[in-house]
Specification:
The protein has 15 helices and 14 strands. The chain has 539 residues and is an alpha+beta fold. Helix 13 packs antiparallel against helix 14.
């Protein structure tokens, strides 16, 4: 059998494959050559790296050896230290055991020293309490007496009686309320209050012994323990005999000074000092003065000279004092004060409104009416007074010399008031006021007032208008003046206009209503006098 031959195409294909395989082999050869070259280079690097690593390893081994040697040395040192520590531990245990035994001895010694210190403190405290100049008394929480120092025993007259209680202390030690026969109340006892937690002080207690009474001042306070509970109450007290005596003397001195000051006020009005802004008469000096707007009242008894001639000097004093004592309240009750008594006369000042002076004058006249009733019952004749009031500026101060001075007021207003009081005699009226006072009244219609005259007063360059206030007249006289008041005013107007005939007719009408109207009578006589003189002149 014949073997089949490959075809040409197959040969060409085979050749092509061989060529591709040859080409692949060439490529692989080239890659191997490149790989071989790269591997050779890399092996050099690896070799260098291995050499470096080897050197590092050698260095680490050397370091480990040194470390191991150091560790071995440290172990030896530690072992040695452990040995030492173990030995020290044994020594400490021995020392601790020894120290414990010593601490017991120290504690006992300290306790002993503490007790000694406490006893020493107690001795010093006792010495201190015994040395203090005040009595010290202590009770316990049950109220039982616990301690009393020497001063306390001396002041109380006895020492501690332990079986007694707080409530029995006043009776046991004879403690009384000062100045009474009453035992000191237990509820007010400072020690009893201290047991209830209160601190207190009293100075109204006195201890009575057989032959003497000792006033004492007592302070008491509670004593607390560390839990805040009261364990004791302690009282300290002292003899205050000297203080009480000094207080009594001081009170007596103050009373004497008060009485002396009151006596001074009878001579120098308190208001006088107030106006001068002086606290005491001691502060007043010569020349002290102050300017004030005041109403000045002068009052005087009519015909006192003739009246006094019928009396003995002693009767004169009694009469004047009886009269003045009835006038004074009317002035003080209406905010005035008496500057001075001038024989039977009175000079009073009013710093408030002019109404105060008017009301005081009216009250004086009412008091006089009562006084006259009393005199009539006693068989004496009634008396009459005249009152003049003026209001104005005045100087209030002291006048005199260094050895003798007095308080007074000086001004033209004072002189005018005195002159107006004198006019009451001429017009037969009880109360006259100046135009200045009239203008100062709050409401003149509150009073029964009529104009009396415009007069030229001695020492004055200008005429002064005066008014009568007849509220204080007796009822019959007052009613008559009030009934004829309008007629009187018309008559006065005619008189001022020199129509004397018409004026005289009206004044006669006034007298018909009130025959006791002395002013109307005076004006009627003036009119008649002028008319008579006029006829004579014509003839």
């Amino acid at each position: 059998m014949q073997e089949e031959q490959p075809s040409r195409e197959q040969l060409f294909l085979e050749i092509a494959n061989l060529r591709r395989e040859l080409e692949d082999l060439k490529n692989k050869k080239a890659d191997l050559e490149i790989l071989l070259e790269t591997t050779t280079e890399h092996s050099d690097i690896v070799e260098a790296q291995l050499h470096q690593s080897n050197q590092q390893l050698q260095a680490e081994i050397a370091e480990r050896q040194r470390t191991e040697e150091a560790l071995q040395a440290s172990q030896a040192a530690l072992q040695s230290l452990l040995t030492i520590v173990t030995r020290d531990k044994i020594d400490l245990e021995i020392l601790l055991e020894t120290t414990t035994e010593h601490s017991d001895r120290v504690e006992a010694e300290l306790h002993h020293k503490a007790e000694e210190a406490v006893r020493a403190s107690e001795r010093r405290l006792a010495q201190f309490l015994e040395a203090v100049p005040v009595g010290v008394f202590v009770i316990d929480a049950r109220g039982k007496p616990y301690y009393a120092n020497h001063t306390a025993q001396r002041l109380l007259g006895k020492g501690i009686v332990p079986e007694d209680t707080t409530a029995q202390l006043p009776e046991l030690y004879q403690a009384y309320v000062a100045g009474t026969d009453r035992l000191y109340p237990n509820a007010q006892q400072p020690l009893a209050l201290a047991l209830s937690g209160s601190c207190s002080t009293v100075d109204d207690m006195e201890v009575r012994q057989a032959d003497k009474i000792i006033p004492i001042e007592v302070w008491a306070t509670p004593i607390f323990d560390e839990k805040g509970e009261i364990v004791y109450a302690i009282a300290a007290f002292q003899d205050i005999t000297r203080r009480k005596k000094a207080e009594a003397e001081r009170i007596q001195l103050i009373d004497q000074l008060y009485q002396l000051n009151t006596a001074y006020e009878r001579f120098v009005p308190r208001e006088f000092l107030q106006f001068l802004k002086k606290k005491s008469i001691i502060d007043v000096t010569l020349g002290d003065q102050v300017q004030q707007e005041m109403s000045v009242l002068f009052a005087d008894i009519r015909d006192f000279t003739a009246l006094s001639e019928k009396m003995t000097p002693s009767d004169n004093f009694q009469f004047i004092n009886a009269f003045l004592s009835r006038m004074e309240p009317a002035i003080t009750e209406n905010n005035g004060f008496i500057d001075k008594y001038i024989g039977d006369g009175i000079m009073a000042l009013f710093s408030g409104s002019a109404d105060d002076a008017i009301k005081a004058a009216i009250t004086m006249l009412h008091n006089l009416a009562e006084y006259n009733q009393h005199r009539a019952q006693a068989g004496y004749h009634p008396i009459q007074i005249g009152i003049g009031i003026n209001t104005g500026s005045l100087m209030l101060g002291t006048v005199g010399g260094n050895n003798r001075m007095q308080g007074t007021v000086v001004s033209d207003a004072v002189n005018l008031a005195s002159r107006i009081e004198g006019l009451t005699k001429e017009y037969g009226v009880s109360l006259l006021i100046s135009h200045q006072t009239f203008l100062q009244l709050q409401n003149s219609s509150d009073y029964f007032i009529r104009i009396i005259d415009r007069v030229k007063i001695k020492g004055k360059s200008e005429e002064v208008t005066v008014y009568e206030v007849f509220d204080g007249d007796l009822a019959e006289l007052k009613d008559g003046k009030l009934s004829a008041k309008t007629i009187f005013e018309k008559a006065l107007l005619f008189y001022k206009n020199q129509k004397f005939h018409e004026a005289a007719q009206l004044f006669q009408d006034c007298l018909w209503y009130n025959p006791m109207d002395k002013v109307a009578k005076i004006y009627l006589e003036r009119c008649q006098f002028v008319s008579t003189n006029f006829r004579i002149n014509e003839e």
